[in-house]
Amino acid sequence: MQVLRGRVHRYGKNVDTDVIIPARYLVTSDPDALKPHCMEDIDPDFVGRVRPGDMIVADTNYGCGSSREHAPIAIKANGVSCIVAKSFGRIFFRNSINQGLPVLECPEAVDATQAGDELEVDLGTGNITNLTRRQTFKAAPFEPFVLELLQAGGLIPYTQRKLRQRGVASS
Amino acid sequence: MGMTIAEKILAAHSGRARVSPGDLLQVKVDFTMANDITGPMAIREVRNLGVGKVFDPQRVALVMSHFVPSKDIASATNAKTCRQFAQEQGCIFFDAGKGGIEHTVLPAQGYVVPGDVYVGADSHTTTVGALGAFAAGFGSTDTAVAMAMGELWMKVPPTLRFIYHGQPGRWLRSKDLILHTIGQIGTDGALYACMQFEGEAVRALSVEARLTMCNMVAEAGGKAGIVPVDRVTLDYVRPVAKRPYTVYEPDPDASYAATYEFDVSKLEPVVARPWSPGNVVPVREVAREKVEIDQVFIGSCTNARMEDLREAAELMRGRQVHQRVRCIVMPASVAVWNQAMKEGLLEAFADAGCVVSTAGCGPCIGGFMGVLAEGERCVSTSNRNFPGRMGHVKSETYLASPVVAAASAILGRVAHPDEV
Ligand code: SF4
Predict the structure, then answer these.
(1) What CA–CA distance (Å, rounded) separates B49 from A163?
(2) Looking at the predicted structure, is the pLDDT value of residue B313 above 70?
(3) Between 1.10.1060.10, 3.40.640.10, 3.30.460.80, 3.30.499.10, what CATH number should domain B5-262 receive?
(4) Chain B residues within an 8 Å CB radius of A169
(5) Cis before B69? omega within 30
(6) Which one of A159, A160, A161, A163 makes the best mutation probe of the B interface by having the most chain B beta carbons within 10 Å?
(7) Cβ(B301) to ligand 1 under 6 A?
């Protein structure tokens, strides 16, 4: 699996999906339409600052609240390559995997990382290296099944493959 | 070692004799739901799967609840997508004026029954666990797979046990119990877990009041909330159940990740201050600060069923909403709306100077009707008070029970019902 490298945008605890993408924009799920409003209610400069490959690093319970899958879609639309947090809201965690956005839990790496640091994340081993501070941490490994989902490109391609194996027509 | 209710339901739906927390299962699903926000994306993914038909049209519901009637062309297009899909598939569809909020309509009409595994594309799907079902919220993609295949992967959650002893005081409501609990354990205190609510004080609650508690499991990070089935549950379920149901009891030697006990006789009405449902303080404390408000919302899937409206209307009768305040009342479902009309509750609200509005989510989600301006403060019977949840990012929401909300509407500040 890939090795990702990017600059860090750092957030605190309990960043909820309402601030990631406010409900006033939920009349569409088009990534391009959601993109400019990502993190608008917590960090209005985020969209202007973020560069492709950048990473979000946050404290506990990132993505708590509403089940809106628009949240990982908006984050991904801004080119964020992965999210490292102490813990995630459970629906957000699943939604991110389903959207092919890697999400890793690693409290130690979060504590040792500040905004602007550069991180390298090896999705295969779970190694997270803070290149700025020259420290390496190990994230909780993905469950084999979750890894399988990520490798398949999300739950839809995974299920399509299963359907083909069962011989059910799939376009 | 025995199993909890959640473990028994998940075992029965995955063909296993027993399961333990952490087990990864393919779970057969009894019922699935998406709404006007999550539905269009779920429909797109069902189509992407190329299965043609959903697994069982009578177990797939699309409920228009968030932006009803449609607020603009984009939301009208979303509703149209859902309507057309429902027609083509023959699945259950609730349009504006027909249903209301999914978490109120579906249990009340017997679509979800005890012992079910219920997958809904909305975080407050947990609400229906009050009937002794395993009800969990998912995103659109997961729900699409459940709608297409009739099954979904799930991990068995650990169960946390919450036991409420004693008799509540005059103004203590189930909303206070759940807010108090979230205040104690924190907004990630039940992360990935199932919250099982029991004890004498829970048994004394109506199903409506239990739905309120399971609703806010989402605010504690929980995967599901569950109340053991008793006579009260069965009296609610029997006349409406669309399918046979199964009652699962927890084994006496079931294992719980933690047990919390409360003496409700010692608890008092609370509010959650901005900007977290875990920021819970006694109403009296805030009342002393004379916190002035601009809006009150009596509505949402948390608290806008008959019991809630009866109590709020009782407080409003013969009184007026404070001149500074807009009070918006939205019954959670069309059935509740109609019943409230027949009982004269809507008239009582209107006479007191409330806005009585369509059944639906409304101001709860800050996208439509009753949106807050910068600096405005609202007391709401809903479940979330995150920054910007009900409008401007610098608006404030206090979460409260319907009686606290009604008292606050009358006095124009966060108020205890005793003060009215
Ligand atoms: S009332 Fe609020 S919390 Fe409930 S489903 Fe609607 S938007 Fe969600």
Answers:
(1) 8
(2) yes
(3) 3.30.499.10
(4) 50, 52
(5) yes
(6) A159
(7) yes
* Centre of ligand 1 from the C-alpha of residue B364, in Å: 6
Could you report the per-residue pLDDT of B371-409, keeping only the tens digit for each? 999 999 999 999 999 999 999 999 999 999 999 999 999
Torsion of CA B203, B208, B212, B217, to 10 degrees: 60
Categorize the per-residue pLDDT at A170 as very low, low, confident or very high, splitting at 50, 70 and 90: very low
Nearest to B221 among A29, A89, A95 (CB): A89
One fold for B5-262 and B271-419 = yes
Residue with tokens 């969990």, as numbered in its chain: B136
Whole-number Å distance between alpha carbons of A118 and A107: 17
Pocket lining: B330 vs ligand 1, CB cutoff 6 Å = no
Give the predicted TM-score (pTM) of the model. 0.97
Domain positions in chain B are: 5-262, 271-419
Q: Classify domain B271-419 at the CATH topology level.
A: Aconitase; domain 3 (3.30.499)
Gap between the Cα atoms of B371 and B363, Å rounded: 6
Separation CA B370–CA A7 (nearest Å): 40
Phi, psi of B31 (to 5 degrees): -150, 145
Place of tokens 């999914």: B102
Inter-residue contact A85 to A102 (CB < 8 Å): no
Return the bridge partners of B2, or none.
Answer: B254
Per the prediction, chain B carries an average pLDDT of: 98
Evaluate whether A101 touches A76 at the Cβ level (below 8 Å). yes
Q: B375, B387 in Cβ contact below 8 A? A: no
Does the distance separating the beta carbons of B75 and A27 come in below 8 Å? Answer: yes
* Euclidean distance between CA atoms A110 and A116, whole angstroms: 13
Using the beta-carbon criterion (under 8 Å), do A67 and B187 form an inter-chain contact? no
Residue A8 has phi, psi (to 5 degrees) of -95, 135
Candidates A29, A41, A66; nearest CB to B41: A29
pLDDT in tens, B287-305: 999 999 999 999 999 999 9
Q: Is the dihedral of CA B367, B372, B374, B380 positive or negative?
A: negative
Mutate to test the pocket of ligand 1, among B127, B383, B389 (most ligand atoms within 8 A of CB): B383
Question: Which residue(s) pair with A7 in the sheet?
Answer: A118
Q: What is the ipTM of this complex?
A: 0.96
Say which residue the tokens 């299920």 belong to. Answer: A159
Cβ neighbours for B202, distance < 8 A, ≥ 6 positions apart: B164, B210, B213, B227
